[in-house]
Amino acid sequence: MKQWLTFGMSTFLAVLLSVSFADHHEDIHLGIRDGSAAVVEPHEFADPPYTTERMLEELIPGLFGTDVGWDFYTESGASHPQLRRVTVRQVFISNGLFGVLEGQSDPLFGVGAPGVWTLEYDPNDPESVHQHIIFASTTLPDHHNPLRFQFELIDALDWHGNPVGNSVVYTLQFVPEPASLTALGVMALLGLRRRTRRNP
């Protein structure tokens, strides 16, 4: 419980700072492909190997995060999205990585977190399905060992309320932004110099 409370405070700060990175990436659009729930956009995420990268920024000292937008896919010329409802279910998440719904304080995704999130379209408030998850970690990964969040789409209904099949497993990989890599390199170099001076 203490871990949740500590992370909740950090996440609150991350949410306040999320405006600075909210539009860096294309939102993940959920829809239907071949009779199953699916990521439709971005296209590189929608096709095998169903993996995409997002960069973690340093939000405050010792806390790294990024904003991932989610929405339902609407075909060109259509008046409504392909889906009416879908649940995002966590399949795997790296230890120490958490996902919090923007505006909330408790982790939605993470080890020991609920791990399920249902989006439902409201015709009276079409924008309500456009949500943001703030993924954050106190550990900065590297490109050779990224933090990962794997999920599948389940219990989906099409616009007419008919059930559609579950999706494949998708993987979000979180890597450091270039500035963070530079900072880590500088710190490592300084540490090496200090050790060299202490051990002539």
Layout of strands and helices, then pairs:
Blueprint: H1 2-17, E1 28-33, E2 36-41, H2 43-46, E3 51-60, E4 63-72, E5 83-93, E6 97-101, E7 116-120, E8 131-137, E9 147-158, E10 163-164, E11 170-176, H3 178-198
Parallel strand pairs: 1-4, 3-11
Antiparallel strand pairs: 1-2, 3-4, 4-8, 5-7, 5-9, 6-8, 9-10, 9-11
Search tags:
200 residues; alpha+beta; 11-stranded mixed beta sheet; 3 helices; 20% helix; disordered C terminus
Overall description:
This protein is of the alpha+beta class and 200 residues long. The protein has one domain (2-198). Helices cover 20% and strands 40% of the residues. It has helices spanning 2-17, 43-46, 178-198, and strands spanning 28-33, 36-41, 51-60, 63-72, 83-93, 97-101, 116-120, 131-137, 147-158, 163-164, 170-176. Strands 1, 2, 3, 4, 5, 6, 7, 8, 9, 10 and 11 form an eleven-stranded mixed β-sheet that branches. It is globular, with a radius of gyration of 19 Å. The chain starts with a helix and ends with a helix. Residues 8-23 and 180-198 have low confidence and may be disordered.
